[in-house]
Amino acid sequence: MPNPTAAILIIGDEILTGRTREGNAHFLAGELVKVGIDLRQIRVIGDEHASIVAAVRALSSSHDQLFTSGGIGPTHDDITADAVAEAFRRPIGVREDARAILAAHYAARGVEFTEARLRMARIPEGARLIDNPVSGAPGFSVENCHVMAGVPNIFQAMVAGLLPRLTGGAPLLTRSWQMMVPEASIADQLGALAAAHPGLSFGSYPFVTEGRYGTNLVVRATDPVALEAGFAALKAAFPEGQ
Amino acid sequence: MPNPTAAILIIGDEILTGRTREGNAHFLAGELVKVGIDLRQIRVIGDEHASIVAAVRALSSSHDQLFTSGGIGPTHDDITADAVAEAFRRPIGVREDARAILAAHYAARGVEFTEARLRMARIPEGARLIDNPVSGAPGFSVENCHVMAGVPNIFQAMVAGLLPRLTGGAPLLTRSWQMMVPEASIADQLGALAAAHPGLSFGSYPFVTEGRYGTNLVVRATDPVALEAGFAALKAAFPEGQ
């Protein structure tokens, strides 16, 4: 059975204007590989209602899982929850269990439960909450769409709580082999290797370090035996690597 | 006249598998702001021909400019040039000017001009070359689609050569105001401020540093006078910031 597929939707003007370097997609990409969910697309869009609705509909219908990051805080530009509700044509309002979680979180810390904070208890009907051990305000899952915070430590905590719930396939395994030569000088040999092993995926990633060209060769497979066979072939083809 | 719009398409399995943390989109986002081109979307997809063709068509037809990064090197997994040619329904082959650039580059460095390297002279018909002062192999523009390398220092050098060619609008200017308070505690006031200044964009970006919550408030405008008026209002509303 093929692995389930996924997309990540990052929501926030601050990324499109170059103010913030997004890191949640990279973090989640690494986690999805470990549980055997194939990430097929990452998309970043701005804080604009119609764009979020359209992207949530497009990506949730074309992938098994959709993860979103950003736009669920207490301020006027936090519009993700309402957009996701509209995308799935569900009503949205303050939900009692989410309100209770926030109330308990603030009470324990002597923090005032303001009207703005109550905004974070607005949850689309029928959604399942995602635990937020960092700052209380929960994320939520509507059908296959998992809505999480943009602040990195909160996003990571939500992912940790969410992923065990989702069914993964076989993890994608990788082995790397580093060559201190330009990519072009091994391209023909690598192409021949890839052609000889149609069941494996071979990638080639050039880099520059201290003015010297190098290339990382990567072989990927879900089957560990096939992976090791491919890696052995890679090492045999390029004995000068490490 | 509104600013031109843009999208960035990043191509590479290594990003979707979490192996590489993508940085070219963040770099280009910062450059586009400076020249007044509004970045509306960043999309990351894998090294898959049909996906690249579909994404290039969708993003180039819905934005004034499309910038791509990745997949134009010499190896078998470098398939961007062929996919872009198909997206714009143009033939592709080795082009004499691109071949001459590569030949001169390698000759000057005593590097062999292999068959694999010749792959990098494959350019869609009618494309305009983008200079690569780092490693020779050019990028290219087909209509509104600008195809550049994924290696960061090459990508940045190509962007530097390309951007002056494109017509920009008014640069988006920003001013920031940092508060060492949680976002929720200023949400109501910020919402009121945004409502009172409909011509300006106010953003709110929470962060955590050394266990304390803080919030960066950002006002954005293309008109410097409007920007300063908005920033003065922001400072007046939140005198405890800095």
From TrEMBL, chains A, B:
Q: Give the domain of life.
A: Bacteria
Pfam families linked to this entry? FLAD1_M (PF24102), MoCF_biosynth (PF00994)
Q: Which SUPFAM superfamilies match?
A: Molybdenum cofactor biosynthesis proteins
Q: Could you tell me which species this protein originates from?
A: Rhodobacter flavimaris
Q: Which residues form the signal peptide?
A: none
Q: What is this protein called?
A: Competence/damage-inducible protein A
Q: Which residues form the MoaB/Mog domain?
A: 7-170
What Gene3D superfamilies does the annotation carry? Answer: MoaB/Mog-like domain (3.40.980.10)
